[in-house]
Amino acid sequence: MAKGDVTKLEEDTWVRVKGRLNKQEYHSMTIPVLDIQSIEKINQPKQPYVYDIGIKID
């Protein structure tokens, strides 16, 4: 989940988001929340999706 003004983003827009990672209670569960500090529109990356191919990247 992210907290911040994202109302001006068009659907299917690629963005780079910077912020502070926090936690919040939601329906009796603790979930991660990104408090947005900045949003930058970017071009679609060459590899737009993450594929699980069993390789651990450190």
UniProtKB/TrEMBL annotation:
Classification via InterPro entries: DUF1980_C, UPF0703_membrane_permease
Domain DUF1980: 6-52
Domain of life according to the entry: Bacteria
Pfam family, one: DUF1980_C
Protein name (database record): DUF1980 domain-containing protein
